[in-house]
User: Fold this.
Amino acid sequence: MKINLNINGEKKTFLIENNEYLLDVLRRNNYKSVRRGCDNTSCGVCTVLFDGKPVPSCSLLAVRCKDHEITTVEGIEKEAEKLAKHFGDLGADQCGYCNPSMALTVYALKQENKNASLEEIKEYLVGNLCRCTGYISQHEAIKRYLGDES
Assistant:
């Protein structure tokens, strides 16, 4: 079946199977920043923004996304670069596998609550696992990004 998706502000038509997940559709169509991790919504590396809200694409049927706004990290490139700079400055970045999903989630948080407390940041990020860090430097980088008005 064909569906229309609005990805990163561009209207696109995709041929999909009825039972196909958004993650697979995106990867097949060269949206490689959307990564495969656990395939059961536990790790968050497949996160995309669905109408501005972070969701795991590994459990979202592509057919349900018809006519909705899907954002990958390529759609927020400048914001992702700002966050990456803060991560780099604080040594919060290690392997980088979770960076695209982390950037999308933190961007969504900034849209909702740019004055988030440390506890609110932790709560918002609960679905995004990073296997390389202890999160402390990430949380500090995120706090700086939230306050970044540039």
Q: What stands out?
A: The mean pLDDT is 93. The domain at 76-147 is CATH 1.10.150.120 (DNA polymerase; domain 1). The CA atoms of residues 30 and 106 lie 23 Å apart. The chain has two domains: 2-74, 76-147.
